[in-house]
């Protein structure tokens, strides 16, 4: 009768073995996101680096391709430097002996001796080549084997 007396006293009539506690919800299981795939070899290299803790070994073929790319970049840099050197050696003067000729694939040509026009063309060419040279230098700085 003690249970009945407590139920009347607390205002709650419980059956034997029951409790007032609320059930605890099951914990959420959070699954890790799979790595995003920007480039298959990048993901593989990143996973290999995480697993080993060092840079993955590069195949001989990949290394040769990288060396060829580096050679191409250095050739472009040398050509741009040589072209800029040639343009800086160019002397303009106000005489009739200074001319510029542009020839197209069909053999048509345009020739002028106007010093102001020649200077503008040479200055434009110099600015263009300096920009190209700067782009190649940036690629060389960022290059890794």
Task: Describe the structure in brief.
The protein is mostly helical and 145 residues long. The chain is built from 4 helices and 2 strands.
What does the model show?
This protein is mostly helical and 145 residues long. The chain has four helices and two strands. The chain has helices at residues 2-10, 40-52, 60-89, 115-142, and strands at residues 100-103, 109-112. A two-stranded antiparallel sheet has the order 1-2. The protein is elongated and about 120 Å long. It starts with a helix and ends with a helix. The model has no long low-confidence stretch (mean pLDDT 79).
Number of strands: 2
The radius of gyration is: 39 Å
* Tertiary shape: elongated
Strand order of the largest sheet: 1-2
Strand content: 5-15%
Poorly predicted regions: none
Could you outline the blueprint of secondary structure elements for this entry?
Elements: H1 2-10, H2 40-52, H3 60-89, E1 100-103, E2 109-112, H4 115-142
Antiparallel strand pairs: 1-2
Helix pairs in contact: 3-4
Which key terms come to mind for this protein?
single chain, 145 residues, mainly alpha, 2 strands, elongated
């Amino acid at each position: 009768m003690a249970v009945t007396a407590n139920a009347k006293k607390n205002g709650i009539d419980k059956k034997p073995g029951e409790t007032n506690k609320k059930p605890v919800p099951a914990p959420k299981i959070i699954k890790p996101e799979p790595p995003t795939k920007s480039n298959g070899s990048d993901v593989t290299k990143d996973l290999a680096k995480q697993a080993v803790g060092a840079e993955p070994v590069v195949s001989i073929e990949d290394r040769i391709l990288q060396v060829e790319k580096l050679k191409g970049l250095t050739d472009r840099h040398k050509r741009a430097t040589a072209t800029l050197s040639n343009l800086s050696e160019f002397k303009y003067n106000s005489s009739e002996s200074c001319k510029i000729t542009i020839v197209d694939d069909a053999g048509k040509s345009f020739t002028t001796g106007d010093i102001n026009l020649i200077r503008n063309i040479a200055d434009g060419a110099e600015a263009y080549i300096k920009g190209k040279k700067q782009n190649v230098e940036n690629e060389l700085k960022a290059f890794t084997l």
